[in-house]
Structure prediction request, 191 residues.
Amino acid sequence: MDSNEMLQKVKGRLPEKRFTHVLGVVKTAIELAKEFDVSESKAETAAILHDAAKFSDREWMKSIIVSEKLDPLLLDYHAELWHAPVGAYMAKTEFGVEDEDVLNAIRYHTTGRAEMSDLEKVVYIADLIEPNRKFSGVEELRQLKEQGLDVMMEASVKHSIEFLVSKNQPVFPDSLKCYNYFVQQKGKVKE
Ligand SMILES: [Fe+2]
Ligand SMILES: [Fe+2]
Prediction:
């Protein structure tokens, strides 16, 4: 399936505002991929599909998490997290995506994880800073581009965790592992 077909299919599943967000993520993901030497076509595919399951039926998503033996911990956390791993399942089964790196970029776009690939980082960051995002601090995140992909990723996951904490929301362990990974990596370089 080419990217135009994918976009049309995704468009049919999302409200207009969410589709506008997807187009923003595609644009930003391609820019970041160019900047940081990541495959632009993989970034484009992952960005197009990252929110494909965003408006899927909750019970259906739950059934996929169980039947596909996805991380069972997901069921103890907010259903908002489910669309990422279920989106990866959808990308494979309904859009024919086989590339594991692309699937992981979709799978971890909400939580991050330790030892992310550069493609995963690009999609995670693009989701957060695409042009339609207006939250306070987004401009500062965008400007970190000059300091490299890891600096951007660390600041992005920190922002997401801080946001959840400020709202008294639980933080999924993969996000904490992602944060710890960056902080501990820096410690290692210094030694
Ligand atoms: Fe998402
Ligand atoms: Fe998104």
About this structure: Residues 3-190 form a domain with the Hypothetical protein af1432 fold (CATH 1.10.3210.10). DSSP finds ten helices and no strands in the chain. Residues 21, 25, 50-51, 127 surround fe (ii) ion (ligand 2) (CB under 6 Å). The CA atoms of residues 163 and 169 lie 9 Å apart.
